Amino acid sequence: MFNEGVPDKKVKTTCPFCGVGCNYDLNVREGKVIGVTSNLTSVVNGRLTCVKGRFGIDYIHSPERLTTPLIKKNGEFVAASWDEALELIATRFNEIKSKHGNDALAAISSARCVNEDNYIMQKFMRAVIGTNNVDHCARTCHAPTVAGLAASFGSGAMTNSIGEVADSKVIFLIGGNPTEAHPVIAAKMRQALRKGAKLIVADPRKIELAGKADVFMQLRPGTDIALINGLMHIILKSGWHDLEFIKACTVDFDLVADVVEKYTPEYVQNITGVPAHLLREAARIYATAERAAIFYTLGITEHTCGTDNVMSLANLAMLTGNVGKLNAGVNPMRGQNNVQGSCDMGALPNVYSGYQKVNDPQSQEKFEKAWGVTLSDQIGLMLPDMIDAAVEGTLKAMYVMGEDPVLTDGDANHVRKGFANLEFLVVQNLFMTETGKLADVILPGASFAEKDGTFTNCERRVQRVRKAIEPIGNSLPDWQIIRDLANKMGYPMAYNNASEIMDEMAALSPMFAGLSFERIDENGLQWPVPSKEHPGSQYLHKDGKFTSGAGVFKAIEHQPPGEEPDAEYPFVLTTGRILYHYNITTAGKSKQLTEFRPEEQVMIHPDDAKRLGINNQDMIEVASRRGSVQAKAWVTTDVLPGGIWMSFHFVNAPTNQVTSGFYDKVTKTYEYKVCAVQVAKAAG
Ligand code: SF4
Q1: CB-neighbour burial class of residue 240 (10 A; exposed 0-12, middle 13-18, buried 19+)
Q2: What is the reported pLDDT for 131?
Q3: Which atom of ligand 1 is nearest to the CA of 182?
Q4: Record's superkingdom (predicted)?
Q5: Rounded CA gap, 653 and 650, in Å?
């Protein structure tokens, strides 16, 4: 039984689930992880952990772990040696490069893997394959955060720190449900409320924290910009804006003032469904506080206007001078454990590590010199573009590390078609996945418990991941696999350990120049950390000194979602995470988490359920223009009439067969939060 027995040793490490980045001790006995206990020296979480961190990592020893390379022969996977598998991949990659060009190959890196894996993957694609076609699942979640906050503030990351949350005075939570998705941050928010903080919640669902809010605005999905513009309208009309901060630290304020003029409370009520008096009260609480902090997650980013949503929140914070000080700022709670880090490491098609642009000649020259190759200055394909190119036949081969896009990306049938159409597919993972089933070669990676490295949490803190047990079977740490493949392809990589990889990355990336395993050993360091003497940065843009020089206001209008309900598909489906699961692959293999919540459930309002003759726990079918899925009904007033809500955690109810392929116009992040569906009681 997990979490029972006396350990031989305890190894402090960082949780592999969400972006909070809790530290705890892995309890090890006879080479096996037998449980998790709190480590009070953990600067992020102290003694706190959530159910996932405490019970979910029994997947490490799942009997379903891949333990040896597999090569598909005559439609069946056959066990192979590492040498045989890597030789085949090197040969096929080289053939495809010669025949179709470097850009006929692409890689998906992973926010589940350590920074060092991600750095090596992007280096492999750029230096060995010769393309910038590398991306990862930030594309499906917080890419609009990176783009939006970089455009407004100059840095695409959480401005403040988790440690500040418990002392917040005002929390404005919009499009996020930390109780389920970031439970330790939710616990700190509840601590703040006990100390007298005010809470404003805006969400289409009545989430747990909505019950504790001073103001709860249950807005229609996809109307965030109208709501935020409405708040700014009231703040300006009431004279609650911080003119001194605006004049000294920002540009283009007048453009925003012009745009929000028409967003009167009544106009906003028509778009959002939020009563005007609630909007006025929320504006008063947020703008008249000495300090107010905004928190959000994917309810903001996963829209066709995701980047605009993020920049709207940045507008609101700058309007009230709530940037560059404690207990304030704009705080995206990043989803996956290392989605911040995988972006930081350059697992993106347009930047090297440290957000140095691939089409900037100086950056290109620096990396060419360090890596000893000629590099492409062409921005690579984003993940949805890779799928489209695979469907069209221009992309011939892919290397997918630590992800299962067939289950996780929007419009899953289209994604499956793309992968099935490739000439050659390599999948590296802990488990056989839906994407893996389509692969030519499967490579077994090692879990976080079996390797050294670092994760970067959502507050920009780079923390140690420490090896507690030997890799299971013949699996290997991901960076070692890529290193060995690079050597097979004739490009020498000679790293002996993950620490050497971090040293190379730090030497090439000014914002991370002060990082080393030695310096982060105790409590990690929050970037920017530009020198070996720099103590790290608790919050960004101190005293209004933005990374970009001045904060930039962006004039943004409300925009409808990519797909709206109509007579044929009258419901709006929104998707999200639940407490007991974490995406699909790893948590889905946890026996304990699966026992907590074994199956998908569709939240539907009682009025709609009654009209359709649906009772609680009836099996229902949810169908869109792209596909359908069946799951049990959960009749609840937590959702609005006309709206339904599902998670995306269950392989036997793949929600993304239904979700839309519309995406954010800047970052191509799928619009998981709004799609038009029909709902009916399942036949039989
Ligand atoms: Fe892990 Fe997140 Fe839970 Fe902390 S809050 S234990 S990081 S899943």
Answers
A1: middle
A2: 98
A3: 5
A4: Bacteria
A5: 5
Q: Indicate the top mutation candidate among 39, 162, 184 to test ligand 1's pocket, ranked by most ligand atoms within 8 A of CB.
A: 184
21 lines ligand 1 (CB under 6 A): yes
Checking ipTM against 0.95, whether it exceeds it is yes
What does R_g of the chain's alpha carbons equal in angstroms? 24
Q: What is the pLDDT of residues 552-605, one digit of tens each?
A: 999 999 999 999 999 999 999 998 877 776 665 555 567 777 777 778 889 999
CA separation for the pair 316, 289 (Å, rounded)? 13
- For a ligand 1 pocket test, name from 42, 58, 182 the mutation site with the most ligand atoms within 8 angstroms of its C-beta: 182
Q: With a 6 A CB cut-off, is 22 part of the ligand 1 pocket?
A: yes
Ligand 1, pocket-test mutation among 23, 50, 448, most atoms within 8 A of CB: 50
My answer on whether omega of the bond before 528 falls inside 30° of 0, hence cis, is yes
53-100 pLDDT, tens per residue? 888 888 999 999 999 999 999 999 999 999 999 999 999 999 999 999
List 442's β-bridge partners, or say none: 70, 427
Alpha helices in 33-171, H assignment, sequence order: 51-55, 82-100, 115-123, 143-153
State how beta strands 170-174 and 198-202 pair: parallel
Distances (CA, A) of 354 to 82, 505, 507: 32, 9, 11
| Cα separation, 582 vs 316, whole angstroms | 31
Indicate if the pLDDT at residue 13 is higher than 70: yes
Question: How much of the chain exceeds pLDDT 70, in percent?
Answer: 98
* Of residues 494, 511, 491, the one with CA closest to residue 130: 491
Cβ of 52 closer than 6 Å to ligand 1, yes or no, is yes
Q: Where are the beta strands (DSSP E) in 218-332?
A: 250-251, 293-296, 330-332
CA distance 199 to 170: 6
Where do the domains of the chain lie, and which CATH numbers do they carry?
A: 9-61 (2.20.25.90), 70-136+347-512 (3.40.50.740), 143-333 (3.40.228.10), 571-659 (2.40.40.20)
Which pLDDT value is given to residue 24? Answer: 96
pTM to 2 decimal places:
0.92
pLDDT tens across 423-479, in order? Answer: 999 999 999 999 999 999 999 999 999 999 999 999 999 999 999 999 999 999 999
619-623 and 461-465: which strand pairing? Answer: unpaired
Closest protein CA for atom 2 of ligand 1: 18
SS (H, E, C) 516-529: CHHHHCCCCEECCC
Start-to-end C-alpha separation, the chain: 39
Q: Measured between alpha carbons, how far is 144 from 606 in angstroms, rounded to an integer?
A: 34
Tens of pLDDT, residue by residue over 521-531, are 999 999 999 99
Longest dimension (CA), the chain: 72
Asked if residue 183 has its Cβ within 6 Å of ligand 1, the reply is yes
Q: What is the DSSP letter of 125?
A: I
Q: Which ligand 1 atom is at minimum distance from the Cα of 17?
A: 8
Q: Which residues contact 533 (CB under 8 A, 6 or more apart)?
A: 514
Beta-carbon contacts of residue 611 (< 8 Å; ≥ 6 apart): none
CA of 586 to the centre of ligand 1 (A): 14
Q: Judge if the beta carbon of residue 56 lies within 6 A of ligand 1.
A: no
